[in-house]
What we know:
Blueprint: H1 6-15, E1 23-27, E2 30-35, E3 38-45, E4 50-55, H2 61-66, E5 71-76, E6 79-87, H3 96-115, H4 122-133, E7 141-142, E8 151-152
Antiparallel strand pairs: 1-2, 2-3, 3-4, 4-6, 5-6, 7-8
Amino acid sequence: MPSKNQEFATYCCDLLGSVGPCVLRRMFGGFGISFDGLTVAIMTDLGQGEKLWLKADDDSRTQFEAAGCQRFGYLMGGVQRGMNYYSAPEEAMDSPQQMAPWARLALAAALKAKATVKAPTKAKARTITKAIAKPGIKPLVKVKTGSKPAKRLK
């Protein structure tokens, strides 16, 4: 069930404020909460009421599980799927001070996720560098601005 409660989303943003100013935006039928372009939490109703779900990773997953937090899960095509988000601990929902350590864990997970985004392989980087460095080499793709897709050159 999509979240419609802007007030609860704003409250969650206030709870997470210890890591910096947050930005709320509509996402997945609920809200995404981000800091400096990094999504650290989502807020949605999966049928059990609206919840705040915090970003987790391999390092923080055990802490969330030890606190009794649920993993974010949903059904897609009859198959149970999950994301690296865990419900915020109930006691942390009471104040920004209690949420602060959990907010830091979520931000750390988001930073790690951003750092692990694959960079181009060395071979690809060399090919791109050679094509840029040598005049007269015809590019494979001509990129035009506007609504039309790029066309392959012959």
